[in-house]
Design goal:
5 helices, alpha+beta, binds FE2/S2 (inorganic) cluster, 2 domains, about 160 residues, 5 strands, Ubiquitin-like (UB roll)
Length: about 160
């Protein structure tokens, strides 16, 4: 038995037929071929599977695909612009060496995006708190925090200043 669902991912609408017990992360990776989103623990511990769903960073191993029907989802593939220019968050991870094996990185970036949307000028401590659901086995986290700070500075420079017309 399958159910028909519609997922809008990175701005593109997809019609899928999925079994009711299929996890969103598997629909994204296996049905749609968007393998930037990783699967780690499948038990809501590691954050490797984090995507943005209707404005919130969610662990896509904790959501059934049918529960995501009619939602708008952004994955790591949607961060760069259409010319392939890095998003400031990607640029930050690149410049500050915010990754080693890279397995946690897509989830880290999507969570970082939510952190910066809610708080464009976070302290290191606030970044660490925001990332606490995302585990990294490689970096020791400091470079990830620096990467998010780099992105915050870049996004702050790009944002219109108050008083600008
Ligand atoms: S794979 Fe989803 S939290 Fe680990
Ligand atoms: S870079 Fe390897 S798990 Fe984070």
């Amino acid at each position: 038995m399958t159910e028909d669902i519609t997922l809008t991912i990175n701005g593109t609408e997809h019609e899928l037929s999925v079994p009711p017990n299929k996890l969103l992360v598997h629909a994204i990776r296996d049905d749609l071929g968007l393998t930037g989103t990783n699967v780690g623990c499948e038990t809501s511990q590691c954050g490797a599977c984090t995507v943005n769903m209707d404005g919130d960073a969610v662990k896509s191993c904790t959501v059934l695909a049918v529960q995501a029907d009619d939602t708008e989802i952004n994955t790591v593939e949607g961060l760069a612009d259409e010319d392939g220019e890095f998003h400031p968050i990607q640029e930050g991870f690149h410049r500050e060496h915010g990754l080693q094996c890279g397995y946690c990185t897509p989830g880290m970036m999507i969570t970082a995006q939510e952190i910066l949307e809610e708080n464009p000028d976070p302290t290191d401590e606030e970044i660490r708190e925001g990332l606490e659901g995302n585990l990294c086995r490689c970096t020791g986290y400091q470079n990830i925090v620096s990467a998010v700070q780099h992105a915050a500075e870049e996004l702050g420079r790009a944002a219109p200043q108050s008083g600008d017309d």
